[in-house]
Amino acid sequence: MPEIHEVRLPDDVRLHVEVSGPADAEVTAVLLHGWTLDGRAWHRQLAALRERFGDAVRVVTYDARGHGRSSCMALPTATLAQLGDDLAAVLDAVAGSGPVVLVGHSMGGMTIMEYAHRHPAHFADRTAGLVFVSTTAEGHTHTVYGLSPRIARLIRLAETTGAGVLARCGAWRPPRPLLRALQPSIRWMLFGDRCDPTDIRLVTSAVARATLRSIGGFRASIGTQHRLATLARLAHLPAAALVGDRDRLTPPPCAESIAAALPATELTVCPGAGHMLMMERPDEVSGAVTGVLRQVLDRPVPARTARAARPVDAARPVGAE
């Protein structure tokens, strides 16, 4: 069973963090979920990594601010820039002393890019590998929802307007009966040809835990972020990028531009899959993460100053005195 931690950030937001594996593991993998989801989205990858690596790899998942079991935040901090800062704080608090492989789905991948952009020295000191799952470095440039550009523009206008309304609703959460009624729309937007009903229920449960402020507030920076230049400076790192060819939110051109910025990236396009690749194609995603971890584990690690986790008041196990 994972250890449950709470990381308190400088603005008093508290993040729900789950950690498996020893602090002195050879490598730490940090898995970052997408917009309106939570750390449970990675449950199949968590099981696969534990089975394949045991105590050689420490695995960290956490719920982003305003999502899942983490606390809500002030509206001005509902930005990718803030999420990049939060990731730096989580690494300091729970990632241990070894190198880190960062794995990001959708908004989680954009969070990694923002962390690299805002904290280049910290990123360079910690990060040894990258995996990008159904994400983009170009905002909504390629997002047309699988529809004609004209209809996509109308949907984006409605979505942006609605996001502004939701962002002002604070810590309220979506009513579960409404989300159950919207499950066919969720299934169409997020999944491809095949979908396990348990995955729809998990996604619906996650959205029900996200605050309306986070559902609406993050939309603006997600749509406008552009970090291809940042990625181009990371070309020395082992990396992988995966996308489904039925992804309506971050279609294949998003992953292709990431791979072009990182020429050594292993690009995988999954036929018939949508946006939720860790659920739809768990073996492919786990395999990509495993491949990057093995590259990091197999290469010589230069001598480095031992780095301990932060004191217990910054990352304390839930229930600790």
From TrEMBL:
<dbReference type="GO" id="GO:0016787">
    <property type="term" value="F:hydrolase activity"/>
</dbReference>
<protein>
    <submittedName>
        <fullName>Alpha/beta hydrolase</fullName>
    </submittedName>
</protein>
<dbReference type="InterPro" id="IPR000639">
    <property type="entry name" value="Epox_hydrolase-like"/>
</dbReference>
<dbReference type="InterPro" id="IPR000073">
    <property type="entry name" value="AB_hydrolase_1"/>
</dbReference>
<dbReference type="Pfam" id="PF12697">
    <property type="entry name" value="Abhydrolase_6"/>
</dbReference>
<feature type="domain" description="AB hydrolase-1">
    <location>
        <begin position="30"/>
        <end position="286"/>
    </location>
</feature>
<keyword id="KW-0575">Peroxidase</keyword>
<dbReference type="InterPro" id="IPR050471">
    <property type="entry name" value="AB_hydrolase"/>
</dbReference>
<dbReference type="InterPro" id="IPR029058">
    <property type="entry name" value="AB_hydrolase_fold"/>
</dbReference>
<keyword id="KW-0560">Oxidoreductase</keyword>
<keyword id="KW-0378">Hydrolase</keyword>
<dbReference type="GO" id="GO:0004601">
    <property type="term" value="F:peroxidase activity"/>
</dbReference>
